[in-house]
Design a protein that fits this description.
This protein is 66% helix and 9% strand. With 274 residues, it is α+β, with helices and mostly antiparallel strands. β3 and β4 form a beta hairpin.
Length: 274
Amino acid sequence: MMEAASREAFGAAADRLNTYAKRAKAETLATVADELLAIAKLLAGEPRLRRALSDPARPGDDRAGLANSLLGKQLSEGTRTLFGVLVAGRWSSASALLDGTELLGVEVLLASAERDGALAEVEDELFRFGQIVAGQERLAAVLGDVTADLAQRTELVSSLLSGKVSAVTLRLAELALTGFGGRGFESALTRLVELAAARRDHEIGYVTVAAELTDGDLDRLAAALRRIYGREIALKVSVDPRILGGMSVQVGSDLYDGTILRRINETRTALTRR
């Protein structure tokens, strides 16, 4: 989680993105996202550059000017603007600037999907892919193996998703392989789903059931959660017969576990204490 200074710096760049995205085309935003993610990759391999661009002893305008002089000719106007705002902010550390650059690249990718009217689709596609990976132990092990060749893992993800999901979903799934935000592959996918939901001003509700719910059941559950939390909740449903019946719902740190399995476990625990 970003410290206060870094959150403020990122917030300024995110605000500029929201203004910029209102008039930019989806294709332009996708280009800016790729450039920002390329900058993040550069910063990851160049610690001296990270330190120079986040040096609190240097005024923000100077840092932005340095970034432009070093990278400006290679970047589109939108990227120069957004990265300039990002670098001009006050960062708690050089690594925080790296994380902020990567996160901004993701937000721009999501903005491109939003401009295309496909943001909810991207959110669902990432979640479904995460479910597929979680349900296949061998696949999860291969994709999550950070010691394995990244190009080969990227090729595998491409072979699984190309032609079946949007270009933004594929790009984000590939980014998850690199350990987005310092996370493992599956955790990175989960975080990307949450960021997509947040951009739609939704919060994720993870629902586990023993059998598929009807559309009516889902609508009633979503309405109940909306009343509780005062905002829209995007339901992500997993079917797990092992819970035997009932359901569990997790929204943020709140867990509502009404599964039969939980009741059996509680009963078993109570009996063993006698």
